[in-house]
Amino acid sequence: MFISFEGIDGSGKSTQLGLLRTWLEQRGYRIVTVREPGATHLSESIREILLSNKQSITPTAELLLFSAARTHLVETVIRPALERSEVVLCDRFVDSTTAYQGYGRQLDLREVDLCNSLATHGVMPSVTFFIDVPYEEAQLRMQFHASPTEPDRMERSGRDFFERVRDGYLAIAEGDPQRFVIVNGVQDRDRIHAEIVAHMEERLG
Question: What is the tally of structural domains in the chain?
Answer without folding.
Answer: 1
